[in-house]
Design a protein that fits this description.
eight-stranded mixed β-sheet; mainly beta
Length: 304
């Protein structure tokens, strides 16, 4: 298995976008493997009540609830719909979700047509302020962000009102095809880590950068149609990287681990057997480390 130590209290939550563009929830524990919680548990709200792409789960409870941020652009007729918002939803049980707000980022990107992709919560044990980074890009022939048409931004909640967020500011060096999949602060080194498309970690001494790339895991082609990557901190310099392969419903999930903060990586290995009758798109693995959040998750799952 891919888990750090054989410890039952280590629990990961892994939201993903299924083939119907709705939120699906799974969890993992060292002695149980990857388990399904629910398929299509949330389909969006606000300006787009039909799409939940790239769901990112906040790793700690806030205001007594779990939170996800997600992309609202719909893939329709072979193209994504543009927009200048990302979605925000909350839940008390991880299965019943309520739309909270469309977070408007137009104050940063300005006029014109833009896409808003992959909002990602900051994982920081020392910061109670909810922070999100996201990427904004102009349209191009490939729809996805390209080398010269995108920028990653940071925005944070203003106080305890989840509908009020700061004017987004650019994060230095996170340009081009960098799409944030995870963002965390290393509690040991104090460095900020941003992980982008291709599941490679980037580091910085400051939250807003500049960031520089550390390494790239040795991904191998285990199928067709890759869509989404995730690097997640496990503590003590350990990192866990995932890449999903949309070859068939019930995807293969190739993974690789690093025990030295991303300097070197293990051989990429497929984690199979999920078979959820869905494409597992953009899995966003979150290790539950905060004691109160972990206790709440264990209560919901009925785990000791």
């Amino acid at each position: 298995m891919f888990y750090r130590k054989n410890t039952q209290t280590i629990i990961y939550l892994c939201p993903f976008m299924g083939s119907t563009e709705k939120l699906c929830m799974t969890y993992a524990r060292a002695d149980l493997g990857l388990k399904l919680m629910g398929l299509d548990v949330y389909g969006g709200g606000g300006s787009n009540a039909f799409t939940v792409r790239d769901p990112s789960l906040k790793p700690t409870l806030w205001l007594g609830k779990f939170w996800i941020a997600y992309t609202q652009s719909t893939f329709n007729g072979g193209a994504f719909t543009p927009g200048k918002t990302f979605g925000l939803a909350s839940s008390t049980d991880l299965l019943n979700w309520t739309w909270v707000a469309d977070i408007d980022v137009s104050s940063a990107v300005g006029a014109g047509t833009y896409y808003t992709w992959q909002p990602c919560w900051l994982l920081d044990d020392n910061d109670d302020t909810p922070r999100v980074c996201f990427v904004s890009s102009v349209p191009n022939s490939g729809q996805l962000p390209g080398a010269d048409d995108s920028q990653t931004y940071e925005t944070h909640c203003l106080g305890s009102d989840p509908t009020q967020w700061s004017t987004p500011v650019p994060m230095a060096n996170l340009l081009g095809a960098f799409i944030p999949q995870n963002w965390w602060r290393d509690s040991v080194t104090g460095k900020y880590n941003a992980e982008g498309f291709g599941a490679s970690p980037w580091k910085s001494d400051a939250m807003l950068g500049p960031y520089s790339q550390v390494s790239v895991p040795g991904w191998t082609t285990l199928g067709a149609g890759t869509d989404g990557f995730s690097v997640s901190p496990e503590g003590e310099g350990n990192l866990l990287a995932f890449q999903n392969v949309n070859s068939s419903p019930g995807d293969i999930l190739p993974f690789s681990r690093s025990l030295d903060s991303g300097a070197t990586w293990s051989v990429v290995t497929p984690l199979g057997g999920t078979n959820f009758q869905h494409y597992i798109a953009n899995p966003s693995l979150r290790l539950m480390r905060d004691p109160s959040t972990l206790a709440a998750v264990k209560g919901i799952l009925g785990l000791a």
